[in-house]
Design a protein that fits this description.
This protein is α+β, with helices and mostly antiparallel strands and about 550 residues long. Helices cover about 45% and strands about 15% of the residues. A hairpin with a 4-residue loop joins strand 9 and strand 10.
């Protein structure tokens, strides 16, 4: 019925996309889906996508893998989702191909994953133009273990390394100079892991994707992990795929309700400004509240930390140095006074999609009354969701189907019902009896004459579709993936857990320790064997234990 539900949605809702596959034994093994709203969100906010599989969402241990991005409120938004039997490059290839097919072949600028070896093969095989980026957080979490406890705990190496790798303001040459200086200072030239991570620095260091549009919108897979945590609030690890689908729909309804609430707040209110800059006032009318507050901070900083430096010009462009007292650096702004084209060496606009304090300081000084349209990205504006929705063939899609109308009518009916109950509280008992009689009569008119429904019929009524006799797909085989069973722990983790475990009183050695009388290391072998024999005798003599 899970596949039947997807099939019916594709037939009744414009823009709903799904694809599934079976293995050689005709067992269901993988599926991808994205509705019209998810596909529209990707067309608006799909510059950076993060992908991180999660587990224990259904009884078959199939891997749930959503595609996640950042919307115009800087909140996580789901572009599509998939289930797969096993985490390998073949399954990832298939999922990524279906994702691109659903999105009309449009690739993101950056695609973020963890260091999974299977995804290392699959991502470049499918995404030809997208930059494959690795999660910085996962990498930096390994540093203390890789450099050793002495360096990690007794020096400031880790904190200084963090300040180097997380700095988005560094150019590649600056990063390499500071990296080598740090490695040389702490004599870490022979550390193989650090050498390897430096060799793949283009895949995880922000300095190397400063020029990619919105390349610093994401730097980790934390968005995906946050979304996975969000979805798990709705999931049942032992539920069927039908139950999984219903819970997934509930999660998506909550995510989209949150987005619409933020849209309503941004549409019907204006945030308070902190300066008299016309650029800030203009930004308050066009940006969503979440983005406006970031822009507002740039406006405030432009007044407090920017000052004029040297300047030069060529035939069309003026080059103005701006002294930034906050970062103790000098940035160069290139400005065309005729067209208001401006660019800054800090590249904040390229990295995050809004102009920096240095450009704001220059434009305000030149009397600019509003943000130039060229630097007003629609993905951050209030009106971005009001654009018409088109499918991959350029046809206008209408996702407001009969199913949606039915839901709206049912919601109205519930509202009327509760309003009526509220009014009945002040009415005499006969009025309540009259309402009960009316509802009972109406229910009997709607209810079929047949006996009580079977569980299958109840599911069909709940999902709004019937089981198909044309599809012959067997349930998936329960998969065994990393994370789906009991987690194996290392000796180090076992020792840490033992130390953190609360101590208890041992009746043998009379001390507070991590053992008791049965496994006390201070007891003699004879004493231990006698206790073991006594225990065995008591176990045999106890009928309840035998039974």
């Amino acid at each position: 019925m899970f596949i039947n539900q997807l099939q019916q949605l594709s037939e009744t809702r414009e823009g709903f996309y799904y694809a599934f596959d079976v293995d050689a034994d005709q067992c269901f093994c993988r599926v991808f889906w994205a509705d019209a709203e998810a596909r529209r969100n990707y067309s608006l906010y799909g510059e950076a996508v993060t992908f991180d599989p999660t587990y224990s969402t259904n009884r078959y241990n199939m891997i749930f893998s959503p595609f996640t991005g950042v919307d115009h409120h800087k909140k996580s938004v789901t572009f599509g989702a998939s289930l797969m039997f096993r985490e390998n490059d073949l399954n990832f290839n298939w999922i990524f191909e279906k994702f691109l097919d659903a999105m009309g072949g449009k690739e993101p600028h950056c695609f973020f994953t963890d260091q999974c070896p299977a995804m290392k093969i699959a991502v470049p095989a499918v995404f030809k133009t997208a930059a494959h980026r690795l999660c910085m957080w996962h990498i930096m979490q390994k540093v203390p273990e890789k450099v050793g406890p002495t360096v990690a705990k007794e020096t400031d190496f880790v904190s200084r390394l963090n300040s180097v790798v997380w700095d988005c303001d560094l150019e590649p040459s600056d990063f390499e100079e500071r990296w080598f200086g740090l490695i040389s200072e702490f004599q870490m030239e022979d550390n193989g892991w650090l050498s390897y991570m430096f060799s793949i620095r283009q895949r995880w260091i922000p300095a190397y994707y400063r020029d990619i549009p919105l390349g610093c919108l994401l730097r980790t897979t934390q968005r995906s992990e946050s979304e996975n945590s969000f979805f798990k609030r709705f999931e049942n690890p032992r539920g069927t795929l039908v139950e999984f689908w219903l819970r997934f729909q509930s999660a998506m309804d909550q995510q989209r309700y949150r987005q619409k609430s933020l849209d309503r707040d941004s549409d019907h209110s204006l945030p308070q400004t902190k300066t008299l800059l016309r650029l800030e006032i203009h930004a308050s009318t066009v940006y969503t509240h979440s983005l406006f507050y970031d822009f507002q901070q740039q406006c405030v900083d432009s007044l407090h930390s920017c000052s004029a430096g040297d300047s030069s010009r060529d035939a069309t462009t003026r080059f103005l140095d701006v002294e930034d007292s906050m970062f103790r650096k000098t940035y160069t702004v290139a400005l065309n006074p005729t067209t208001w084209d401006a660019s800054c060496s800090c590249k904040l606009f390229e990295r995050k999609g809004y102009i920096c304090k240095h450009i704001i300081w220059i434009l305000s000084g030149k009397g600019a009354k509003k943000i130039p349209d060229k630097y007003l990205l629609s993905r951050w504006t209030k009106n971005t969701k009001k654009m018409p929705l088109y499918d991959v063939n350029g046809q206008l899609m209408d996702d407001f189907t009969a199913s949606d109308v039915s839901k709206m009518h049912i919601s109205t009916a519930w509202s009327e019902f509760y309003s009526t109950l509220t009014l009945l509280k002040a009415q005499p008992a006969p009025k309540v009896t009259e309402l009960i009689h009316l509802l009972t009569t109406f229910r009997q008119q709607l209810q079929p004459v047949s006996e009580t429904m079977t569980k299958q019929q109840e599911l069909e009524m709940l999902l709004g579709c019937r089981s198909s006799t044309e599809l012959h797909i067997l349930p998936p085989v329960e998969s065994k993936n990393k994370g789906s069973g009991k987690r194996l722990t290392s000796k180090k983790q076992q020792c840490i857990a033992k130390v953190q475990k609360p101590k208890r009183f041992c009746n043998n050695c009379k001390q507070m320790a991590h053992h008791d009388k049965r496994n006390c290391p201070h007891s003699s072998s004879d004493h231990a064997s006698s206790h073991q024999s006594a225990d065995n005798a008591s176990e045999i003599s106890s009928p309840s234990d035998v039974l």
